[in-house]
Design a protein that fits this description.
Length: 328
């Protein structure tokens, strides 16, 4: 039983969360995916059809061409490789000397029509950040579907043969998600460096798989995770747990501060989580933003304050959580 009242996230901060100079463009290019993972905050699946249009893709390419301050183009989905615009966006970013991140589920490589993706990523030296929510087979298959673990291992071995995970020009990182809680036994991700060593030892010993870094990501109570928690009547207790573990030292490094998250319709958000919860980024005048408006105003830096919600505690609890793992 909670002894004190829940403190809303913005009240906990005591002031607005301000934006920094934009250096990262994260683009969710569509909801289509060959998997339907239980923890997916995007609620992607093979049944989803939403994806970039040609018009929005061309606007995004213009954005990449026009603004040298963009250092990283981060492509996500769904399975980004399955959705329209993947290769054109990659090629525009490469042409402009941007780092390109592909957030892959790995199993897409075995779907007919996408077998060329590993070689394509290798030829363009794309950074692959791949979801492997545990190094043990049973845990992965419970979260992502039967057979996903073995396909993921085969994909990692394939990438290793191409040179991934073995030098600094072909980066292969993995992402750990803890199981979604099904009781009041809540827990934050384990220490990122220690868990990375566990992953590396196990995968090397059993499969001769190598990778660069492990990123630990806290389950935010949105999307399928929120629905699951609500069905068990533990959504608010989980929020209470995250609030109780708030760490102010994470604020400086929050990913929402230097990135723009863009959806397949060209709408702009502060982060991918806000995108999924339909909380758009806003100007100081309260206006919502699109890629077309960024181009019209000829600036990426028109947002002063990040839009926040109570699930932001998920990014600021413990060692923090982001698309690049722990924050402190």
């Amino acid at each position: 039983m909670r002894k004190t009242a829940f403190i809303p996230f913005l009240a906990k901060l005591g002031k607005a969360l301000t934006k920094k100079k934009i250096t990262v463009l994260q683009i969710n290019i569509g909801r289509r995916c060959n998997l339907a993972c239980t923890h997916c905050h995007v609620e992607a699946s093979p049944k989803r059809t939403e994806e970039l249009s040609k018009e929005i893709c061309e606007q995004l390419i213009e954005l990449i061409n026009r603004f040298p301050q963009i250092q990283t183009v981060d492509l996500t989905g769904g399975a980004p490789e399955m959705n329209y615009g993947f290769k054109p966006l990659v090629e525009a970013a490469i042409k402009n000397n941007k780092e390109v991140i592909v957030r892959s589920n790995l199993t897409i490589y075995f779907v007919p029509g996408f077998e060329d993706i590993p070689q394509y990523c290798a030829e363009n030296k794309l950074r692959i950040i791949a979801s492997l929510p545990c190094y043990l087979e049973d845990n992965v298959d419970k979260m992502r579907g039967n057979g996903v673990y073995q396909k993921s291992i085969r994909a990692l071995q394939w990438l290793n043969r191409l040179g991934y995970g073995q030098n600094q020009s072909m980066i292969l990182d993995l992402v750990y998600n803890p199981p979604v809680p099904n009781s009041y036994k809540f827990a934050l991700p384990a220490n990122q460096k220690n868990l990375e060593q566990d992953y590396k030892s196990y995968l090397k010993e059993h499969f001769n798989v190598k990778f660069n870094q492990l990123f630990t990501i806290t389950n935010l109570p949105i999307g399928r995770t929120r629905l699951f928690l609500e069905n068990l009547k533990i959504h608010q207790p989980y929020l209470d747990f995250l609030e109780a573990n708030f760490n102010g030292e994470t604020i400086e490094n929050l990913m929402c501060r230097n990135e723009l998250s863009i959806d397949y319709l060209g709408n702009v958000y502060d982060c991918d989580f806000n995108q999924m919860e339909n909380i758009p980024a806003k100007t100081s005048k309260g206006e919502t933003i699109t890629v077309a408006k960024l181009l019209e105003g000829n600036s990426l830096d028109i947002i002063e304050q990040v839009q926040t919600a109570n699930y932001c505690y998920g990014c600021t609890a413990g060692c923090g959580s982001s698309c690049g793992g722990a924050l402190v």
